[in-house]
Amino acid sequence: MTDAERDLGRLLPSGDPSTVADLLPPGRLVGPRQDREDAPPVLWLSDGPAPFGLWEELHRAHPRSGLWPLLLAPLREGDEEFRPWATGELSTESASEPDWYDPAALLRNGWEYSTTVDSDGEPLDPDEASELGRSVAPFLDGWPGTAPAADRTGDPDGAARALARELLAFNANLRIGLVAAAGGAEALTACGWSGPVNHEDDIAKVSAVLLDWERRYGTRVVQVGFAELELSVAAPPVDEPTALRIAAEHLAFCPDNIFQGAGTLTAYAPGLIGAPQWSFWWD
């Protein structure tokens, strides 16, 4: 048994690590050190940059290996510590399970919280409420509900592989991570990622929404950073009304995308029409 097979066997004792072990460059296991120093590993991390095409091979092997591949980015370019991954700034202690939650209810709650209180949790004053009204138009009357599922979802796996190639072509310093999980949404909970902690401290709720988007729009988690997320999208919106509804979901899921980005839903939504990638960033 190789070192890689032994390591992967610790991540997924019931799996067959031999299906991917021979594909891997040098790497090591990482445990959630925020829980405790000797916590069991939750992630296999390559020591160096991901070889081009490896994510795709690992993705194809996932049904047999049970290990979901992630392209991993550090806190900032040139970060020699490669936070949070190599430093184990991960925690699985407080997470619940994605299937405990109704994603539509989570998005409604996210919308209501993001549109009724300020960053300190205090009710908006009249000037803040007026400014917010401009940001969330045309949904001044409140949460519009989740957008309908796409009629056709295209090829989610093909879209994910295409995005992985594009991301690696743009940033050759990304590393490969492997997590024992049914898919990318569940992988975030399984490895204890805490990127959205300033907005949502239970990553299972984030995973629950991502699972819903997988079903409705054929999304896949491809790249994860310190507090960033890159999804492939096989069935993006094709018209402005649907794009606006999805923009409202994005605000509920990640308010910084709008409030620290485009500024308004009407400015943000056109960029979603036909877009094969959704990007999120939490302050």
UniProtKB/TrEMBL annotation:
Residues annotated as domain DUF4253: 175-283
Database matches in InterPro entries: DUF4253
Region of interest called Disordered, as start-end residue ranges on this chain: 1-41
Name of the molecule in the record: DUF4253 domain-containing protein
Species per Swiss-Prot/TrEMBL record: Kitasatospora setae (strain ATCC 33774 / DSM 43861 / JCM 3304 / KCC A-0304 / NBRC 14216 / KM-6054)
